[in-house]
Amino acid sequence: MNPSNRIEELRHKVNNLLPVYKSSLYRYSLLAYSRSLLDLADAIITLSDAGKLSGIPILYRTFSETFVDFHNLSTDKLYGYRLQSNRLKEWIKVLSNLEPNHLSWLKESAGLDDLNGFKEQLLKEKSALNEKYKPIKIGAKFELAGLKDFYDTVYNELCSDSHSNLRSVFSRLNLDESDLKVQLCIATIPQALKELEDTLAQVFRVDS
User: Fold this and answer.
1) pLDDT tens string 186-197
2) How many CB atoms lie under 10 A from the CB of residue 67?
């Protein structure tokens, strides 16, 4: 099956499941990661087909991070507590350093009216999490997924692309379809889609 058609078929299945499992934090989180993976894979393939190669490594960094969280969550429900811990940590950091002139922007973008109440709620949730579920760093996520080598090598290169430093802008000048980095970004997508498809079948009993 054409990758784009396969992505569209899987996206349709995920979209149908999302409203059904909105009240189940674990399943809803798994579906949210699934949807992100599909959208990012679709964008990468679209750029490849259009010959717009310089954006692929940038998107692929996010794709790889999303896949690692998806993989870890699909194999261990308790990993969701680690993700929640990271979410709380970052929100509290934002709210603790908020300047008054950013207040309107945050309220509008996050759909929040009572920021102080929201922060109190986050702090309460954070204190309820066991020390076992403290925030997990990105390197530890990849190691947990069995991808430490990828993190130490390819991921480092992808970060360079995302930050757009001198190393990355020089490398973009020579990108073509035969570039090993581009090929790797494209080549791993089918494997990720297969795991996503298998997970939908196992967790949600969705036919592949």
Assistant:
1) 999 999 999 999
2) 24
